[in-house]
Fold:
Amino acid sequence: MDYAKDNSGAVTAAPKHKAKAAAQKRRRIPDGLAAQERHRRSACRPTEVSPCGAAAYGFLKTRFLPHYTGLAITGSSEKKDFYRSFKLLCDHYGISPVDTTGFAYPYGREVALHEAGRLLNEKYPQHIGLELLEDNGSFAVQTTETCHTGNTLFYIPVLPLHYMMQDKKHRKGARLLLCVFSYLFHTVNIPYYTEDCFLYWQYEMVTEWVTNDPDDWEQKDYNDHVSQLRAAQHYGEKMLRRMWNRVHFDHFGVWLKAFTPCDDLDRQCHSIAQKFYSLWQDYPKTSIYRHADTDCLPDYENDDYDDYECITMEKYIGFVASTDGWLYENVQQSVNAFFSESLSKQEPVLKRFFDGQAQENDTLDFECRLFPLLNELCYLLNNYDYDTKRPSIPA
Structure:
């Protein structure tokens, strides 16, 4: 097929269409979106709504009176004797329990004793037990006050005080504690481990165990154990001679008044010394064994008497060399083994019988103040022992 070769005119470019408006330039996409401004919190708050408490809480806070299943007692003088004795008890201790005279007896008696026991143990530091006793047909209430000591060993370490006295900065504070030691030894009659007492025999057993068989130990361990034994004996006797010196006992108040603490340790020594001095002034001749319970002691006249039956007070109260290290660990193990075979423990006890006779002006206030002070004293000495570099002990 032949195409046309002739053109009717010159060929011209087609006209361009003009845009009505200029196109906007393309912008770079931003790296991140702009942070939007957050709405501020309103000062108004919705009303707080909380669910009601658990019903069990109200049950646990409810106090129930004692339940008595026995028969009522009538035609006896027991009720009259009880309330007469019970009134004497309340007047002596200064308590006001609920009036139960209108209750059936002996239910009223049980409620009265229960409420009185609760009030007494809230008011006084010692535990006070109540019991109704009969004597030749008449009845009276007896109270048993007990200063519970728990399972604590009141062992006062003396070597930390010896180390404290070597420090010139704390020598005067240590002198106050030495006055406390002298008071506890001379007046309170706390036993010392280098004299004839229970603790002396515990140290003696450990000494014999080490020295009698030196070949059973490694040479290094043997030298270390012997060093601790010699230090306990040497420094213990040295501290005992200082405690025997009456100058620390006689000048206690003068040195305490003139002492000016310079740091925290001195302030602790001063505070403890003040408390012991106040106790001494209130009870100048009181021994720790004044109210020691004798009912728990075994019959010494019996041929079957065994010293293991009762943990007497001199067995868990006393001066020891130190309360850390290999020596004390073995002494403590020996003591615990001895106590594990005992049946009872001796504690300060005071009994009162409200039968109309005048009551003696006697309390367990001394013991209730002494035992917490002994704990505070031991805590201070043990902490100083840990935080102080000890002098070398001769091997």
Observations:
- The longest strand covers residues 127-135.
- The two ends are 133 Å apart (CA to CA).
